[in-house]
Amino acid sequence: MRRAAVVMPVRTPVGKFGGSLRTVPVEDLAATVVREVARRSGIDPERIDDICFAQAYANSETPCIGRWAGLHAGLPVGVPGFHTDRRCGGGLQAIVTAAMMVQTATADAVLAGGVESMSNIEFYSTSARWGARSGTQPLYDRLDRGRERSQPEARFGPISGMVQTAENLAAQFGISRDSADEYAARSHQRAAAAWQAGHFDGEVVTVTVPPHGRSPASLVARDEGIRADSTAAALADLPPLQPSGTVTAGNSSQQNDAAAACLIVADDKLDVLGLEPIGYLIGWASTGCEPAAMGLGPVSAVAKLFERTGMTWDKVDLVELNEAFAVQVLAVLAGWGWNEPDKLNVNGSGISLGHPIGATGARMLATGLHELNRRGGRYLLVTMCIGGGQGMAALFESA
Q1: What fold, for 4-120+253-398?
Q2: How many other CB atoms are found less than 10 A from the CB of residue 274?
Q3: 385 is annotated as an active-site residue
Q4: Where are the domains of the chain?
Q5: Where is the Thiolase C-terminal domain (predicted)?
Q6: Per-residue pLDDT, 396
Q7: In this structure, are residues 263 and 366 in contact, taking their beta carbons and an 8 Å threshold?
Q8: Cβ(364)–Cβ(372) under 8 Å?
Q9: What are the start-end ranges of the E strands in the chain?
């Protein structure tokens, strides 16, 4: 079987919810990274066999985002595209799906990634098409509704949202508010230090924001959600999101706008296409868990991945574990029985950089592979929990 090489992973800056990227449509974010991957890699666009792109909050404004993004980016009309979704794991799923395509020789080069513009997720009605005889008709916020309906209520009971699942883990593992705030502050401090050291320079693509209203056109080149001065003491002043809870806005991931992408190429076609890999996919796994404890998904996913690949913790050089919540990260570390801070989210993650759902997995891969090569390491583990009760994990090796 052919090896799947990762070529030219890039990402946009991660915009705050309602921030500087609010007026940039999701198709523009996606096209920005699609266009840049093609430009930086130097691949002949005609040789791109497909585009696999994730978006968790899709709608009919840009149906089948992979195809839409390719056309919008100016790629040849003959390049097809499709859309995939595994919620928080969607971006990583797009990459491993592309890898399976090249491994099985159904494609030689696939452009893969993910995108989310959470600032532009709409409100919607489920009753407007045929009307109603009387009564108030609800208009749902797709963001909140997607979290509330992440599992069949008839089987699992109601879950108010992802915050409730995080509080369940805090209670199960005895995680304190202080430890959650300390972890969150560290995430911000690491992300700020990474920008200061220039560690993101090679992966971030500047986004052009078109003029709107009285605001002229502008450029966005840096992540917006990082608070360099964050401390555990300052975070301790924030109220919990649920009464007597541990989870706050400060120790949770953000809602964001961003896109990330890369090329996935068969190793025996790299020279033919004139491409230089940054890494290779070794293996991946996905698992299910109880929806009410969705944050533990990486525990079983990594166990399954290690069993399949023969990998052990002592061989892993870097770990990118998505920070949906600080308590979720701490619970996963306890479940793994592993905790090496100098290898974990060394440049920050969802709490500091943000969590643009469909783009997150591809963003983590871009950040992780660039850092792995900067350090001269060999193995990178990328893993995340997934709303609805899933986990996903993938192992990459440096080129």
Answers
A1: Peroxisomal Thiolase; Chain A, domain 1 (3.40.47)
A2: 11
A3: yes
A4: 4-120+253-398
A5: 276-397
A6: 99
A7: no
A8: no
A9: 4-11, 15-16, 50-54, 82-84, 109-117, 123-124, 140-141, 207-209, 218-220, 256-266, 279-288, 318-321, 379-386, 390-398
3-class secondary structure per residue, 105-135: CCCCEEEEEEEEEHHHCCEECCCCCCCCCCC
For residues 309-323, one letter each, b for 16 or more C-beta atoms within 10 angstroms of the residue's C-beta and e for the rest, the string is: eebeeeebbbbbbbb
Name the catalytic one among 88, 188, 262, 370.
88
Indicate if 72 belongs to the active site: no
Angle at 239 between CA 233 and CA 242, to 5 degrees: 135
Instruction: For residue range 53-89, list pLDDT tens digits in order.
Output: 999 999 999 999 999 999 999 999 999 999 999 999 9
Q: Give per-residue pLDDT as tens, 92-145.
A: 999 999 999 999 999 999 999 999 999 999 999 998 899 888 889 999 999 999
Residues 4-33: what's their mean pLDDT? 98
279, pLDDT greater than 90? yes
Percent helix, strand and coil across the chain, each to the nearest 5: 40, 20, 40
Residue among 83, 188, 199, 355 flagged as catalytic? 355
pTM for this one?
Answer: 0.97
Three-state DSSP at 149 gives coil
